[in-house]
Amino acid sequence: MNTPFYFAFGLTLLAGLCTGVGSILSLGYKKFNPKFLGGMLGLSAGVMLYVSFAEIINKAKISLTEVFGEQLGAIYTVVGFFSGILAIILIDKLIPSHDHDHEDENASSVKGNQNQKLYRLGIFSALALAIHNFPEGLATFMSAINEPSYGLSIAFAVAVHNIPEGIAVAIPIYYATKSRKKAFWYSFLSGLAEPIGALIGYFILRQFFDDSIFGIIFSSVAGIMVYISLNELIPTAREYAGQKITMWGILVGMLIMAISLLLFI
User: Fold this and answer.
1) Distance CA 7, CA 237 (A)
2) Among the four 34, 207, 220, 264, which has the fewest Cβ within 10 Å?
3) Nearest 10 degrees: CA dihedral of 81, 135, 226, 117?
4) Of the ranges 92-96, 190-194, 213-217, 260-264, which one carries the lowest mean pLDDT score?
């Protein structure tokens, strides 16, 4: 393998591993703090919502428009978006819930239900981000191998916005399990989808991975992330921290993601 391959793969690997950086930064609190938890979940929702509507949907529409034209490209973008929502709803139904069928006044039982809810939330976030990171890693890798200076700027921007994405996975997992190690590894593994995407794309999918497939994947991922934000992250954040802190968390998350995306320009 030549030098450009190792350079491009190294950039993609480092960008993906920054989800682990996000988890490290978010795991400083040893004592349970519901307001901190709620604020960070709100921040995670802001990150997911902003990146979905400001970047991912736009990328999907551009790719699909190039293949199918303006009107059909827009239609397929919408279809992909709502297909992603439908897919995550079905996944939600397939993952067993441990909620009790009968109301239980026992405090430990209530706490167990809350932990299970947070754990499921972390798993959903990890799943959505891994799916998102797979084609993102391929795009970063291919940009770097074709134009190293452009690839470097893209990898840096991806690395920056992977940090808050790592928080989205680590925080609910940590508060559900009280295990920093487990929170870190889930976050870390979701970021590994980027270098894995680069390798699979380079060796296997280059002849199949065209703009249409890229667009459908990205529009579906946007739908998944929006659903998780609206149905899981924001309601859970409000439950722990209230409306005001949740809203500030969302706004800060959007601002962080907006700044990181400006690095692409």
Assistant:
1) 40
2) 207
3) 130
4) 92-96
Nearest-angstrom CA–CA distance, 113 and 102: 12
Is residue 98 within 8 A of residue 113, CB to CB? The reply is yes
Q: What pLDDT sits at residue 174?
A: 86
Identify the residue with better confidence: 5 or 160.
Answer: 5
Q: Using CA atoms, how far apart are residues 156 and 262, in angstroms rounded to an integer?
A: 11
Model pTM score: 0.70
Residue type, 229: S
Q: What is the mean pLDDT of residues 18-45?
A: 78
What pLDDT digit, counting tens, does each position of 103-116 carry? 444 545 555 677 88
Measured in whole angstroms, the distance separating CA 44 from the mean position of its chain's CA atoms is 9
Q: How many CA atoms lie within 13 A of 247 on its CB side?
A: 3
Distance CA(118)–CA(114), nearest Å, equals 6
The mean pLDDT of 232-248, rounded to a whole number, is: 90
φ, ψ of residue 31 in degrees (nearest 5):
-95, 140
| 42 within 8 A of 243, measured Cβ to Cβ | no
> Rounded to whole angstroms, how far apart are CA atoms 168 and 145?
30
pLDDT score of 255: 92
CA distance 79 to 59: 15
Q: State the amino acid at position 145 in one-letter form.
A: I
DSSP state of 97: P
The residue with greater pLDDT, 120 or 244, is 244
> What DSSP string describes 206-232?
TTT--HHHHHHHHHHHHHHHHHHIIII
Residues 6+ apart with CB under 8 A from 142: 8, 201, 202
